[in-house]
């Protein structure tokens, strides 16, 4: 496909055209020429108001349902949601049925995703069946295409198992990811433990459960001289622990979900199950610390934590409702609205582009002549109302319906194909 992108402002610090408004000529999936006011006939042209272009966005934590829970999400619906949200790639967690715990499941996802407009990378289960007892077939999965290893939202409770997994994965430079949650402390909790949980009469999930697990895993990483990535952190103390570990030269990285920097536990005052997530929404003080962690590099990436749940699982009594928010369609609009007055656009984009790729040991993407075109096309200043018609996921468990978001993707260019949002 030959394409001419007109008058686009490039947001890419690694590009010689960063912050410049230029035309981009793509030929057969390769950036052929970048210059001002290109004139090329007989070619498809894309132009839009206040058009910005960056290296393709990458969501490093999406919870899909395929295989086993296709009623929640399959790979095709996830790809449509991701493309609408401006993502050219995502990493899917192993919380499926069966779990992604052998090369069979990894190859299933890789093969099924070949024809989709985005890249989908499997994260392999760290333990067999995600049971936290025995190591999974980590090297076989890695050779088949698994990017990293994690037990999803089931944190690895056995320190010995995690220690062995970190040492084993170090041999082939595969990232190990843990969702920090000491379940013996948080078990049975419905929301953040604090003033609001007391007022609402709901059992709390203390931030301590997250912080103790992070402290333990930092100690293991130091002992092993290994790396560890913490996914979906949510508390101020977690940021402090990770910042201190990084200052000591330890190989620690972390991500935070977009909704954790936009919403706090006061949103649960009406017992709306759409706000019920794991980790739970914390306090405004925690949000301030998370944003500071993004600003100073303590937190490396922002993820969607896309977690589709059916109406049967979500629309019920608060105590019994499933945790989770869908996030692929809203991720950029939510985080950009929350952060645009505190972080530069370059920094925000880096947290959903270069940050995830670096964390997962993927090659960097840049906007230069001769490079493969993997691009997100967007307007960072567009204010729009998120409506149900914008949902491309199979599920609609999101509290952002009817809310104004700031920043929207026009589409993506990936795998030699331009995928445009129908709104434009």
Describe the overall structure.
With 424 residues, the protein is an alpha/beta fold. It has a single domain, classed as TIM Barrel, CATH 3.20.20. Helices cover 28% and strands 21% of the residues. It has 13 helices and 17 strands. The protein has helices at residues 75-85, 103-112, 138-144, 159-170, 183-186, 195-200, 207-224, 236-247, 284-295, 311-314, 331-339, 345-351, 354-359, and strands at 2-11, 21-27, 30-35, 44-46, 52-55, 57-62, 87-92, 119-122, 177-178, 191-192, 204-205, 228-230, 252-257, 301-303, 375-385, 404-414, 417-420.
Short account of what is shown:
The protein has 424 residues and is an alpha/beta fold. The chain is 28% helix and 21% strand.
The CATH class assignment is: Alpha Beta
**CATH T-level topology:** TIM Barrel
Using the CA coordinates, give the radius of gyration. 21 Å
How many structural domains does the protein architecture include? 1
| Inertia-based shape | globular
* Low-pLDDT stretches: none
- What is the chains' assembly state? single chain
User: What's the helix-strand series?
Assistant: EEEEEEHEHEHHEHEHEHEHEHEHHHHEEE
Give the count of helical stretches: 13
CATH superfamily: Metal-dependent hydrolases
Mean pLDDT: 97
Quantity of strands, as a count: 17
Strand content: 15-25%
CATH architecture: Alpha-Beta Barrel
Question: What order do the helices and strands come in, and which of them pair?
Answer:
Layout: E1 2-11, E2 21-27, E3 30-35, E4 44-46, E5 52-55, E6 57-62, H1 75-85, E7 87-92, H2 103-112, E8 119-122, H3 138-144, H4 159-170, E9 177-178, H5 183-186, E10 191-192, H6 195-200, E11 204-205, H7 207-224, E12 228-230, H8 236-247, E13 252-257, H9 284-295, E14 301-303, H10 311-314, H11 331-339, H12 345-351, H13 354-359, E15 375-385, E16 404-414, E17 417-420
Parallel strand pairs: 1-4, 1-5, 6-7, 7-8, 9-12, 10-11, 12-13, 13-14
Antiparallel strand pairs: 1-2, 2-3, 5-15, 15-16, 16-17
Helix pairs in contact: 2-3, 4-7, 7-8, 8-9
